[in-house]
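Summary for the lay section of the report: proteins are chains of building blocks that fold into shapes. Here we show the chain for Amino acid transporter and then a coded description of the shape we predicted for it.
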Amino acid sequence: MEHPHIKDPSQDDGPLWGSKIGSAKDPERGVMPLDSGEARMHSLGYKQELKREFGFLTSTCASLGLMAFSSGLTGFFGIAYMNGGPVSVVWGWLLVAVMNIFVALTMAEIVSAYPIAGGPYYWCLELLDNNPKYTLIGWCTGWMNVLGQFALTAFNALLLAKHVAIMWLLGNGHVFPPLETLLVYAIVLLPAGFLSTSSTRGMRSYAAAAGAFLVVSGLLIAVALPVVAPTHQSAAFVFTHFNVGDMAMSNVPNVAYLFLLGMLTAQGTFIGYEAPAQFAEETRRADVSVPRAIILSVMANAVLGFCYIVAILFSIQGVANLSNGEAHGYLVGQIFYDCFKARFGSGVGAIVMLIIPMITTFNATVLSLATNARMLWAFARDGGVPYSRVWSAVSDCTHTPVSAVWAMSALAFLLGLPMLYSLEVFQALISVSSVGLYTSYAIPIVLRMLRKDSFQAGPFQLGKWQLPVHLAAVVWVAISTVSFIMPTCYPVDISNVNWTPVTVGAALLLVLGGWYLPCLRAWQCHHGKARTLGCACARAAGRCSGGTQEPEFESPSAHLQRLTLTDLEYTVAKEATPQNGATTRAAPACPPARTGQLGGTHTSVVIQSHLPLHKKP
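The coded shape description reads as follows.
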């Protein structure tokens, strides 16, 4: 569908993927042209509150650093290896990687149309035209995403605490009691919180460093470990050996069931690649950069993780004693230890090498917390959480959602307290991370399929491949969700029950209770999109949503509460200024800003973009 007032990209002199946007002033109007991502965000009814410092590569690094293949594979390797052996590890990884590319492609197409923080939550609102009848769908999606990301932050911190405990065990034989594990867990969250409150430029630099370190260090281990190992397993063992005997240990019904359990290692590592979507309001040309970052990060994670897996499997020294050695069942730590012990007679080198996944796990915790805070901030901006005005605040110092960062950090610490009594209870609580996130991914994907005729695509489009890609994504998310909630062994009793369906069900009940219970009545407070841009600005730019000619807004008092002091001061002064000698007040106008909005009666927006704005018919 052509937009009559937007220049055709094919007629533009500049490259589609270049950096022409925002690089020079409009010679006729003397203002900076609007960034294409910011323009698209304005067309959706939201003003720019955060600074755009991220680019394509740094956005990719944020996603890659959050998934952190060396972190997830080091911590979860035993799940796949003990449920089928090398075949589950290698081929499970490849299958999960390919299927997650389909999910990433679908997410990329949606975020290209809606490049705004909030991710799946906001996509649902827009795909449903912000219809009040379906606000509950967006509400549930938002809360499942918030809870999933919040649990993911706690899970990364726990993974790091357990990793430190294993390093300490290999060093002096001391086993951490629950109190010491909780202490490390808390120590991890504190600096992670401070780093997550940094400015957008600081977070961009941190994400770039985390991504670069992950790639270089992961390849270093993949090369160095086989060199250190004095003996190697055969290619037949690495690529074709399936340990059917593992069925006897768990009493699962068949080989396919065992393979699905083994895939959980890979699926747990491919979590968090929506990070570029949560950083969209801090990314230049987000409608182009963010979808590319999501896809590239998933592909890079797949390739690098495969190299890491193959190197570890080839370097196994003693297959029989792998799970009952010095590392107490922490298989990658044991493999590192066996290699250095066999080569040099000492396992000190293994402890040094384990520092690498320790750093990548900490980086994943920081990026997870920062991403989680952006989701909470965006949800609070629309009034989706209690005390929304507190959590939707942006720091005047860093121009980032500092309050949301510390809220998520504090809640993650509180979630860790049950580990004092039972680590299994804590793991049950944080198991909602996987199912919660994938459920929040699935809902907008299904809506995208159902609303294909009314969907206005952004720069990234799947074209004729959209139907098979969407179907593959939905089927895979369904399979993944079922895999996470299946019993891990039979017969099921209180000692081996999988608590994931219980925690997910409890989370859904709490979310629905918050919506319907008379004492909470969230349905009276949350009405979907808040549209913080302002009436005059949106009308002047022709920004409408939901198929209406006039955009809907909150009550005037609620809208003014969301304006900054500068916005309010300018609006009051403008209204009090007579025009053409008249004594009546003029209509409110937009405050002057660097975005290219011009105050006055003939407000206009200068957009030098290769891409059309989102505008529903």
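Put simply, here is one thing we learned. Residues 1-31, 535-617 have pLDDT under 50 and may be disordered.
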